[in-house]
Write a structure and sequence with these properties.
The complex is a heterodimer.
Chain A lengths: L8 E3 L2 E5 L5 H12 L4 H11 L5 E8 L3 E11 L8 E9 L8 H15 L5 E2 L7 H9 L23
Parallel strand pairs in A: 5-6
Antiparallel strand pairs in A: 1-2, 2-3, 3-4, 4-5
Helix pairs in contact in A: 1-2
Chain B lengths: L4 H14 L8 H8 L3 H13 L3 E4 L5 E4 L8 H8 L17 H23 L2 H26 L1
Antiparallel strand pairs in B: 1-2
Helix pairs in contact in B: 1-2, 1-3, 1-4, 2-3, 4-5
The chains are: A alpha+beta, B mainly alpha.
The structure holds coenzyme A.
């Protein structure tokens, strides 16, 4: 068993708890239903990295008789750009057949609780600008645009140019 | 970013009405509350009725009532009814657009437009109403903190 991170929360017939290694196949199947890609190695690695260490949280939502119907992963991240450490959420998914029942909200709240207990006072995430579903979800939770802007540049033309 | 007058009227009216969908309010009351022109508002309300976002109530105590789905209607949908926000290149071409400078400036303006559009598209009326409540709660919190410091 990994070190238990936080306590189990019971909300009606929904349990939000830290993921255990035995949940990894169910999370893999759930992610595959959401994204259309099956990535068992990726999820085993995610559990190794985020399911067992302090200040890293891999939580799942378990519905009575329905198994794993949601997950969220986040961590306390020390930012490189002069910002004090903050919470980061970088994976979230709810079973398509169980959506709009506040399961995402409960996962998000549970994650915020864990992050706050770890001593950070801000939670962040990054989304594609046109990802309307996730954007609407995080906005509905109260998230606003922050003071950082993601910049990027094509590296076309750099490869092989350093010989 | 500055919204046009009609857009601001529409947002004030829709959000005021969406705060309590059971309540009817007259156009003059909305205009007075937000210090906006009653004429402008009357025209805007007609557009909002046509879009199904508000309904006009007849009879004594008439007025307007919210009739949309606050959880699904975004700020973008309201803004877009009254102004052309984030118009893609290929709209009305303007002098200099196809020059090197025009193209590079266009890239920067597009970046700004896309951010504005995605922000407005991601905020539903319900989310904005929650923000209002949170702001109010925050102000009440900081007021009571001040009171206890002053006490
Ligand atoms: C985003 C997601 C987690 C939301 O989960 P959920 O359990 O349905 O969310 P909730 O019921 O808690 O919704 C909370 C709020 O989010 C917003 N929201 C959620 N789904 C929405 C939708 N389809 N359209 C508009 N707003 C939506 C609403 O404001 C909603 O509040 P409401 O129920 O009062 O309308 C879920 O849709 C999902 O898993 N999406 C795919 C995530 C993904 O791409 N994951 C990739 C793997 S990391």
């Amino acid at each position: 068993m990994p070190e238990a991170v936080g306590t189990t929360e019971l909300a009606g017939d929904l349990v939000i708890r830290a993921a255990a290694v035995a949940d990894v196949p169910a999370v893999t199947r759930l992610d595959s239903r959401i994204t259309g890609m099956t990535k068992p190695d990726y999820w085993a690695d995610m559990f190794e990295r985020y399911g067992k260490r302090p200040n890293r949280f891999f939580l799942i939502a378990e519905g009575e008789g329905a198994g794993v119907i949601g997950f969220i992963i986040g961590e306390v991240r020390a930012w490189e750009f002069g910002s004090p450490p903050s919470g980061w959420i970088f994976a979230l998914g709810v079973d398509p057949t169980a959506r709009l029942n506040k399961i995402g909200s409960r996962l998000f709240e549970a994650m915020c609780g864990r992050l706050a207990e770890s001593g950070v006072d801000m939670v962040r995430t990054m989304l594609a600008r046109d990802d309307e579903l996730n954007m609407a979800f995080f906005r509905s939770q109260g998230m606003m645009g922050g003071p950082f802007i993601q910049l990027e540049m094509s590296l076309y033309g750099f490869a092989g140019g350093h010989g | 970013m500055r919204l046009q007058q009609a857009t601001r009227c529409a947002l004030f009216a829709v959000l005021e009405l969406a705060q309590d969908p059971d309540r009817q309010i007259s156009a003059p009351d909305i205009a007075e509350k937000y210090g906006i022109s009653a004429n402008h508002l009357a025209k805007v309300l007609r557009d909002l009725v046509r879009a199904g976002l508000v309904e006009s109530m007849r009879g004594a105590g008439g007025g307007y009532r919210f009739s949309g789905n606050a959880k699904r209607v975004t700020l973008y949908e309201v803004v877009h009814m009254f102004e052309d926000i984030g118009s893609k290149p290929g709209g009305r071409p303007e002098g200099g657009d196809s020059s090197d400078i025009g193209r590079a400036l266009g890239q920067v303006m597009n970046e700004i437009d896309e951010t504005a559009v995605s922000t407005l598209k991601s905020i539903t009326l319900a989310t904005l109403l929650k923000l209002i409540h949170r702001n109010a709660a925050g102000q009440a919190g900081s007021r009571s903190k001040k009171d206890s410091v002053n006490a």
